[in-house]
Amino acid sequence: MLFYMLKRLASTIPTLFIIVTIAFFLVRFAPGGPFDQEQPLAPQVLENLKRAYSLDRPLGQQYLDYLGKLLHGDLGPSYSAIDFTVGEMLARGLPYSLSLGFGALFIAVLGGILAGCAAALRQNTTSDYSVMAVATVGVTVPNFVVAPVLQLVFGLGLGLLPLGGWGNGSLAYRILPTIALALPQTAVIARLTRGAMIEALRADHIRTLRASGLPGRVIVAHALRGAILPVISYLGPAAAALVTGSVVIEKIFAIPGVGAYFVDGALNRDYTLVMGTVVMLAGFVVIFNLLVDLLYAALDPRVRYE
Questions:
Q1: Which residues of 31-52 are buried (b: 16+ CB within 10 A; e: fewer)?
Q2: Which residues contact 71 (CB under 8 A, 6 or more apart)?
Q3: Angle between helices 271-299 and 216-243 (to 10 degrees)
Q4: pLDDT mean over 25-35
Q5: Residues 6 or more apart in contact with residue 271 via CB below 8 angstroms
Q6: In sequence order, which ranges of the chain are alpha helices (DSSP H)?
Q7: How many angstroms separate the Cα of 157 from the Cα of each of 132, 250, 303?
Q8: Is the pLDDT higher at 292 or at 67?
Q9: 85 three-state secondary structure
Q10: pLDDT digits (tens, 9 = 90+) for 118-153
Q11: CA-CA distance, 100 to 257, in Å (whole number)?
Q12: How many angstroms separate the CA atoms of 287 and 156, rounded?
């Protein structure tokens, strides 16, 4: 297992290298620069700023310098927040995004699996059609539409929950953004679970269990073990996207997570801040995909570590 993990981690190095390379040049070729303002800076001031941040060097040299610093864990200084490095900013915003993302992931997995199983066990009934109709709406309606509706109903209309902010980590402040972030993923997981559960219930070994007279809950548990595999495969990128936070949700609810930094960095052409969030997201994708592979192999005896 250890050899398998090391081999998988080694195989991700070229992927991370390609992601960093593409992101670096895309950011640099985008119109504008980190020191562009409505009132242009004096040429001498602009030249001094570029020299201070090594932006006066050839682009290829800047790229090699960034890779060298990245290998040492240095994400560089922020061009827009001059008193902080990118690492400090991400470290400050990451706990908010992690808290929001793990909460949304828990709701999405639990709610999606329960809804999918309920629909599969009552296939082609009113319950099945109702669950799938709600799941379809959840997939098609974006969370930047759901979030203001939740604020309008539960914040302004009923006055039950805060409209935004974090409130020193109070649970009341987390409910609306967590639900808004979790709903699309819950709908996807529900649809995946329903399809896989229907197929699992028709398997030969499940028919054998029914013929043996085992209780229904035991049959459902055996079927769920096989049906859960497609959901686990989907959880890798889904978990990375949720845990690193949603840019839109964090902006709508004024949550100081890494999503807000990414938006600010893109608007201000803060090259290092944008690159830092890209590298962090890529790292989460690699880690979660590795965990998913290990969990997949643990649940399915046909999979072996090779």
A1: eeebbeeeeeeeeeebeebeee
A2: none
A3: 160
A4: 76
A5: 27, 28, 34, 79, 265
A6: 2-29, 43-52, 59-71, 86-121, 126-140, 143-150, 171-201, 204-211, 216-243, 247-252, 258-267, 271-299
A7: 28, 21, 52
A8: 67
A9: strand
A10: 888 888 888 888 888 888 888 788 878 888 888 888
A11: 9
A12: 40
Cβ 128 vs Cβ 270: under 8 Å? no
Q: Report the C-alpha gap between 39 and 42 in whole angstroms.
A: 9
Residue length of the chain:
306
Question: CB neighbours of 283 closer than 8 A, spacing ≥ 6?
Answer: 16
> Shortest CA distance to 276 belongs to which of 41, 121, 40, 77?
77
* Structure tokens that stand for 90 in this block: 């991400």
User: What does the mean pLDDT of the chain come to?
Assistant: 80
Residue 249 and residue 177: Cα distance in Å, rounded?
A: 6
Residue type, position 155, single letter? G
292 CB contacts (<8 Å, ≥6 apart)?
232, 233, 235, 236, 239
Give me the torsion for CA of 184, 262, 243, 196, rounded to 10°. Answer: 40
Nearest to 304 by CA among 264, 296, 58: 296
- Give 75-89 pLDDT, tens digit per residue: 888 877 777 788 888
pTM of the model: 0.77
HSE-CB at 217 with a 13 A cutoff on CA atoms is 0
pLDDT for the residue 283: 82
Q: Phi and psi (nearest 5°) for 77?
A: -85, 155
* Token digits of residue 92: 């400050």
The three-state (H, E, C) secondary structure of 198-222, written as one string: HHHHCCHHHHHHHHCCCCHHHHHHH
The amino acid sitting at 243 is V
Q: Which of 282, 235, 242 is nearest to 259 (CA)?
A: 242
Which pair of structure tokens corresponds to residue 170?
Answer: 């109070």
